[in-house]
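Final report, results section. Input specification for complex C-07:
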Amino acid sequence: MDEVVEQLPSQVVVITGASRGVGFETARELAYRGHQVIATMRNPDRDGPAVIAGYENRIQAIRCDIGERDSTEAAAVFALERHGRIDALVNNAALLLIGAIEEVVDDEMHDLFNTNLTGQMRMTQAVLPAMREQKSGKIITVSSLAGKISGPAFGPYCASKWALEGLMESLRYELAPLGIEVSLILMGAYRTQIQFKSTFLTKKLQDGVSAYQAPCEAFVKGEQVRANLNPGVRTVACNIADAIEFPDPLAPHIPVGFDVHRVMPLRQRMTHDEFEAMISSMRNEGFPGSWFGTIEANPPVPIS
Amino acid sequence: MTDPQVVLITGASQGFGRATARELAERGHQVVATMRNPDRDGLAVARGYEDHIHPARLDVTDNATVQSAVDAALKEHGRIDALISNAGVSLFGAVEEISDEELHHVLDVNVVGVMRVIGAVAPGMRERRKGKILNVSSLAGLIGGPAVGGYCASKFALEAITEALRYELQPWGIQVVAVEPGVVNTDMLHGNISTIAAVKEKRSQYQGPTEALIAGIRASANRRQGPRSVASQLADLVEIEEQLPLRVPIGDDAIRVMQQRNLMTDDEWEAFLSSFRDEGFPGSYFRAVEEQGAK
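Structure output:
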């Protein structure tokens, strides 16, 4: 795609987690549209060249681990020294954790929250002084349906995304008077690499000793099958780029994906009892059907 | 990953159609990119994707070209997995002053034109018991407003056809969807804006507000994103193997409006829409009426 030459003013955008998936596609979509992108990642030596290929004048790949305050501040300083301003931050870097709540250990929960919640806050805090001075800016945070609904084996991850929703909703009020906009991307089911690493399983599951081994494995396998059938993340990237370019006030949530359009109105119209009955009745492949189906076939064993 | 799909798109010379053809080609699909004048416009649409984009002549108002384009596509590719009915025209002007011919033309392209192509494509899909029909509707298919009545009539009608088709084609495993983009920066809202003769000849009783509305929509389109999100969303719908929804609104304005409209009574909605005074639709119309008064 190269036929539409955008006439909109060039913006300076910082993206976290830009080595792959949504961050990668968004960095390249923004560069295509003529914007300047600071693409941050943990290992730019390894992952940077692919991100900037063909857009060497528009994308800088730099190291940033949102788990460390020095690192997020250095990324903001880099952007400001190079471009003199930061028009938008795309909070994208995130971890996944799958496993039954009973078996999640403190360290796993801490690492998850240190990236998915505190990490997003750190990076946001790092760019805010500049945006406050500019009296303008956009904080776009990538969330998902997991920030709105929950289900078995998804507890820790949903907890981190629900928390992120709460944080960003508050931030919207705090920053509105300063001319800084805050918006969440509510992303549906897309094919990303996050589902295909083994490190997103709890240690108990990785070691094969979970009391919930069978339903968790069925769930993960089902999700991977489904993820393979899902489209890639270009539409998400396009929607984030649109939000950055959008001249009018942004909605608090930007739903992307037809499944989100389907689930959200349903969730909002149903009582919790109705919604729980609906979720519990699902026997589809993937979330949450394969969990319930497996439980039905093999009731959980007590830990001996 | 989805296997390569054969997709026929109408109105592929510009705007959503062209962007979607190129997005699908980028993803490895085979695209029959139909347009009225492929000799003039085809090369530019296919450039860089000559193995994936096949420009073909099709005028949705001319049954013979519809049938021959579909026949040729089936002969060349053996099947059509998805049809994207995108060709459409706009019409700006007050309902009171729309001529029969003007209304017939917008309906002939935006409604009957869609039906003609579906009539040619559906038999093959029914035979294979598989297929997708994606109709490019509009925010104007969900709500009406001043000076766009003719266009809204055509898009409301397209929504009705989409709903009916869903029931009719469902037994053959064919999915039918309407997508509703909001205001997007495309050719339709630039040089090609079609107005009724009364406005063109500057003799409309609604001249001021209609011109203000057109200028407002153009100005807001100029500040908006291009068609890439719409193209990418359409390509997703071609690839997704799950049950598709009836409607897919695209863009901040379309999504918000649909949510709001669904929650409001008619009275609430009318009061809400009438309160607009922003640049663009419909605020610029109401502002002009307020400033200039009705003649």
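The radius of gyration of chain B is 19 Å. Chain B touches chain A through 40 residues (CB under 8 Å). This concludes the modelling results for the funded period.
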